[in-house]
Amino acid sequence: MALLNFRRDTSAPTNGAVPAFLEGFSMEVMPRTAAKIPDFRELLPAGTRVYVAHIEGTPIEEMVATVKRLREEGFEPMPHFPARIMRDALQLRDWVARYKGEADVKQALLLGGGPTTPVGTLDNAMQLVETGAFAGFERLHFAGHPEGSRDIDPKGGDKMVMQALHMKQRFADTTDADCAIVTQFAFEAGPMIAWVNRLAEEGITMPVHIGIAGPAKLQTLIKYAIACGVGPSLKVLQKRAKDVTKLLAPLEPTELLKELAKHKAANPAFGIEAVHFFPLGGIKTNATWIADQVKG
């Protein structure tokens, strides 16, 4: 099947492409990393969407406290709801009620989650939707995997991943909530562009919030990339790692961002709507880097 619009337009202008591409960016934190930031208002624009990752073993009280704090500081918190770390729909509804009651949460990221074996009866994002617990939410996001996911397709490929996205698209077509796909990070623009174009071919029209790893040491990026199941683009890091002089130097996603921004500028209908940052080298480091890019 041919890929739509998969062509690097070297004639397209780049001035202003990156700042425009970064409008409406989001960032991901965890309670333990957020606790290290005295005041997010010193780092991020007011109203920035901040995802709060719920890692297995994190008490719901810590999650709610972090989300409440972000709300009070003027941000739009989006907590993760990983299906496989919950006992059942009753616990899900309890978590939703806490978030809504204490932090006026109206947005959520629904996903299967890291554990391969569910703690209880819930296993995937669509089961979360089917409980009805998110009725009335303004925005629901789902996980995307530009390089596939071994958790979903253990034998490789992306057959099951694409089937799941089609189910989510059917839901998006019938709900009043704004839906989008937020992706795992990767390190090459070409495969990201090809994947987003393929979604369009498949009739998956939910906008994509593309995942990008923020500035970090090469060793840190490699560690997280392996842990998160990053696919073929990991070779970009492995190639750089062969040069021992670069092991301790921070690696910034500048060129990746420029390529994606240039493609979006040349193809306004291209499916990437926003950038989502994973601050693997630290929240402050990532936020400062973003501010520098916006200044140009």
UniProtKB/TrEMBL annotation:
It comes from the Bacteria. InterPro entries: FAD-linked_oxidoreductase-like. SUPFAM superfamilies: FAD-linked oxidoreductase. GO terms for molecular function: oxidoreductase activity. The keyword Oxidoreductase applies. Keywords: Oxidoreductase. This is Methylenetetrahydrofolate reductase (NADPH). It comes from Rhodobacter aestuarii.
